[in-house]
Amino acid sequence: MAITIAAIALTISMPTLNGTQLVTSSFAQEETEESGDLTAPEGNATFGGDNAGTYSLGPDKYGLRIQVDMDDSPTNGTVYVAWLVDNSTGDDIGIGQLVDDELAATQQITNSSLYNLIEVTEESPDNVGTSRNQSAVVAGAEI
Predict the structure, then answer these.
(1) Has residue 12 been placed in a domain?
(2) Within a domain: residue 58?
(3) Cα–Cα–Cα angle for 45, 51, 54, rounded to 5 degrees
(4) To the nearest whole percent, how much of the chain has pLDDT over 90?
(5) N or C: which end of the chain has fewer CB within 10 A?
(6) Distance CA 41, CA 32 (A)
(7) Weakest mean pLDDT among 19-23, 57-61, 80-84
(8) What gap in Å lies between CA 143 and CA 136, rounded to an integer?
(9) Which CA distances in Å does 8 have to 29, 30, 142?
(10) pLDDT higher than 80, residue 50
(11) For residue 7, is it within any domain?
(12) How far apart are CA 70 and CA 89, in angstroms?
């Protein structure tokens, strides 16, 4: 399931006293909240194994709100980094580094429906980059 954030515009024409038309617009936003378990990689997938944590996603007024909570701390000297991933293209966007095994962030994403996975990698702090290290995935989930 992909993340859905859709905006719907409604335009209303209203007559005024002097005969000119006044046009007003209002917006309604479809809000889809999603939460679930993050699981360890299994087989060729980055998810499907033992439970490793939880996630929740949903729109807020600034973009897409993302929360990640891992059950265990990373190995000493490493950090967890969360990512949204399009598994058909491999494109990803970094959400952020977890602090005390948790992350709460808001991303401004123009088309969130492109991403259908959330993944957490475990990396050395000096190796955290702008694209995820696929071999470092420790948890994931379909969204």
Answers:
(1) no
(2) yes
(3) 100
(4) 56
(5) N
(6) 26
(7) 19-23
(8) 20
(9) 6, 8, 26
(10) yes
(11) no
(12) 26
**Structure confidence at residue 31 (pLDDT):** 56
d(CA 56, CA 65): 8
Residue holding tokens 């996975």?
117
The residue with greater pLDDT, 61 or 72, is 72
CATH value at residue 82? 2.60.40.200
- Tokens of residue 113, six digits: 């429906």
**Percent of the chain residues topping a pLDDT of 70:** 78
pTM score, whole prediction: 0.76
**Rg, C-alpha atoms of the chain:** 20
Count the domains in the chain.
Answer: 1
**CA-wise closest residue to 137 among 48, 56, 66, 34:** 48
* Residue 10, in any domain of the structure: no
Asked if residues 133 and 94 have their Cβ atoms less than 8 Å apart, the reply is no
DSSP string, 82-138: EEEE-TTT--EEEEEE-BTTEEEEEE--S-GGG--EEEEEEE-GGG--SS--GGGEE
